[in-house]
Amino acid sequence: MLIGREPVIEKKTQFRIRINEAVYDEVTAYCEWAGVRYRDFFIEQACRYILTNDQEWESFKKKTQ
């Protein structure tokens, strides 16, 4: 399982997103399967995964530092 349970509450910033209904349904099903109570935790973990594994993004960040 790529996403574990939620940690202790951290400071969060709220924002609104729109998402394809089929993707939303699958995210919801995954969260139920994985025992993730909050979909925002899933979204945060997915974002962290992308941001740490996208080599082009890492290269861009190094160039702009």
Notes on the structure:
This protein has helices spanning 21-34, 39-53, 55-64. The protein has 65 residues and is mainly alpha-helical. The protein has a domain at 38-65. The longest helix has 15 residues, at 39-53.
Estimate the mean pLDDT confidence: 89
Rg calc: 14 Å
Order of secondary-structure elements: HHH
Low-confidence stretches: none
Helical percent range? Answer: 55-70%
Question: What is the end-to-end distance?
Answer: 34 Å
Largest sheet entry: none
Basic shape: globular
**Care to count the β-strands?**
0
What kind of assembly state do the chains in view correspond to?
single chain
| Secondary structure tally, helices | 3
Computed structural class: mainly alpha
Taken as a percent bin, the fraction of beta residues is under 5%
Short description:
The model has no long low-confidence stretch (mean pLDDT 89). This protein has three helices and no strands.
Question: What key attributes describe this structure?
Answer:
single chain, 65 residues, 0% strand, mainly alpha
Give the topology.
Layout: H1 21-34, H2 39-53, H3 55-64
